[in-house]
Input
Amino acid sequence: MIRILIADDEPMIRAGVRAVLATDPGLTVVAEAADGRQAVELVRRHRPHVAVLDIRMPGTDGISAAAEIRRTVPATGVVMLTTFGEDEYILRALGEGATGFLIKSGEPEELVAGVRAVADGAAYLSPKVAARVVAHLAAGGAGVRAGRRSAARARVDALTARERDVLAFLGGGLSNGQIARRLKLAEGTVKAHVSSILARLGVDNRAAAAVVAHEAGVVPVAPGRLPYEEG
Output
């Protein structure tokens, strides 16, 4: 059973999130919070597998709460709920430990999928959020885009070949178990590779590593080829 905390300053939003999660018998909501400060307190008390946080709340917002949860209860994964037009908040949250992002107006199935993915140790960006992040990163003209891509490729090129393989699937949102099956490795070996990748890239979480992978053009490809191969 995956245990979940919900934090949003709007009671109707919390009720809606709870109702969607209740459609999956493997998920259970153990606590609700109206702001980030209360969310952190309840995470410390209940130790849920996943905290679903509104990115903007009065007082302590979701980004600050995500950072504190990562610092004090790192075993709890964080899924952020956001709306369109909040690209800068999404990028900030990536640096503060959030590993899942969902649009409030998205499909209910995405919420369940995102919570399950983060509970399983994967990063999850809904398709709409991923498109917004990529568009934001692409902003600033061809020169800026080329500079970002070049910097990202330099960071990725510092990885070993196997780490690049793992990063490619990590960038596709796969969990350690899924990556292990794709690459025919032990899950513990994949976990060790992921830890090394985060350290080498200088990022704090899988979602941030996924952004580097997308900037560098590292993406999963057709079966039978290594994901980092060109051509």
The chain is about 55% helix and 15% strand. The chain has a mean pLDDT of 82. The first strand starts at residue 2 and ends at 7. Residues 141-157 form the longest helix (17 residues).
